[in-house]
User: Fold this.
Amino acid sequence: MTEKNAMESNISEVKQIAAQLLAGMLSNPHIYPNISDEGVRGEREQILLMLAVEMSTELIGKIEKKEQ
Assistant:
């Protein structure tokens, strides 16, 4: 696998895992009790989105470290 393909694969994995984490957070009423007035552009939604991306990136990093 070329370096470019590996990076594209990593980005795809981050997006997929982040989407799954975000869906879980949004469906949990303790984390996300109701939709803000701004919808997707709301501050709470943006924070959850960034958390999901950070969590997925960190998770992939830990998995790759274990595989080495």
Summary: The two ends are 16 Å apart (CA to CA). The helical segments are 3-27, 43-67. The chain has a mean pLDDT of 87.
